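Recall the central idea of this unit: under ordinary conditions, the amino acid sequence of a chain determines the structure it adopts. In this exercise we apply that idea directly, starting from the sequence alone.
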Amino acid sequence: MQQAANVLLLPGWQNSGPAHWQSRWEALYGYTRVQQHDWMQPLRGDWICQLEEAVLAREGPCVLVAHSLGCLLTAAWAAVSRNTQRVCAAFLVAPGDPELPHLRTVLHSWAPVELQPLPFPCVLLASHTDPYCSFARASAFASAWGARCIDYGDAGHINADSGLGDWPQGHALFLQSLDTKELPHGN
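Accordingly, the structure predicted from this sequence is:
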């Protein structure tokens, strides 16, 4: 298992509130939240710079634990960073779709979504009832990124509104994804 400080939490648009599983994991396990300058008006370039700084500040390899827009951040960062070898895995949960009509205005700098294979092993959890991304679109992201897609059923946006609490099942999946040697790798 990674050092807790090297597990980087990447919240999505509007950050993850106190009831969100990412905030609970931060408190329970000591994982590190990557802070952004503006959670309400997320600009892709700014968010990429913040992730780059967080990765470079770690002494060892990092694991990214992303939710919603954090998943798109992972892909966008990997497409431009020269430091992707410093990330050993990514756990991607409920990616958002900035091309949906109700998200286009606020997430304008995130479209089109970066769709090239990620250079580290990753898994993606997707829900059939996510209002921010269809299951088909999330599956297409997983395929493009070289991620193993896990069907998480009808769990909404897999956030605080989903009633997950500390989300021990998710944490078990996360730890399992780190232990397996069968995760697909991007090119």
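The chain has six helices and six strands.
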